[in-house]
Amino acid sequence: MELIWLVPAFPLAGFIVLALGRSLPGKAAGAIGSAAAGLSAASACAVAWLFASGGKAPYSTSLWPWLDLGAASPALALSVDALSIVMILVVTIVGFLIHLFSIEHMEGEEGYHRFFAYMNLFVAFMLILVLADNFLLLYLGWEGVGLCSFLLIGFWYGDRANGDAARKAFIVTRVGDVALLLGIILIAANLGSLSLSESPRLASAAWGRGSGIAVLAAALILGGALGKSAQVPLHTWLPDAMAGPSPVSALIHAATMVTAGVYLVARTNAFFSLAPQVMTAVAVAGAVTLLVAGASALAQRDLKRILAYSTMSQIGYMFLALGAAAWTGAIFHLATHALFKSLLFLAAGAIINALGHERDVLAMGGVAKKMPLLFWTFLAGAFGLTALPPVTAGLASKDAIIARLWYAGGDARLLWWAAMAGVLLTSLYTFRMLFLVFAGASRGPRASGHSAMGASTALPLVVLAALCLVGGLVDFPRVLGGEPYFGAFLGGALPASADTGATAGQELLLSLAPLLLSLAGIPLAWLLAKRELATEAGPALRARGSRLAAFVRGGFGFDRLYDFAFARPLSRLAGKGVDPVNLASEGLRSMTLRASRRLASTQKGPPGRYLAALAVGAVLLLAAALI
Amino acid sequence: MNFYLSLASGLDDAFAAAPLIVLAASALATLAAVSFAKRKVAAAYALCAIGLAAALVSSFALSLKMLPRQVGGALSMDGLSFIGTAIVLVSALAIALASGPYLSRREGERGEYYVLLLFATLGASVLAASSSLASLFLGLELLSVSLYALVGYRRERPEGSKAAFTYLILASVASAFLLFGMALAYYQTGSLELSSIARAAAEGSGGPLFAAGLAMMGVGFAFKLAVAPFHMWAPEVYEGASAPVAALIATASKAAMAIPLVRVLAPHILAAPAIWAIAALSGASMIAGNLLALREERVKRMLAGSSIAQLGYLLVALAAGGSNGATAALFYLAAYSLSTLGAFACIAAISSAQADAGRENFRGLASRRPLVAAVMTASLLSLAGMPLTAGFIGKFMLISSGMGSGVPSAASILPMRILVVLLALNSAASLFYYLRLLSLMYRGREPEAQGEPRAAVLAGAALALIGLGILAIGIVPGPLMEAISSLAGR
Question: Long-range contacts of range A110-114, CB-CB < 8 Å, 24 or more positions apart?
Answer without folding.
Answer: A111/A155, A112/A26, A112/A29, A112/A30, A113/A18, A113/A21, A113/A22, A113/A24, A113/A26, A113/A29, A114/A155
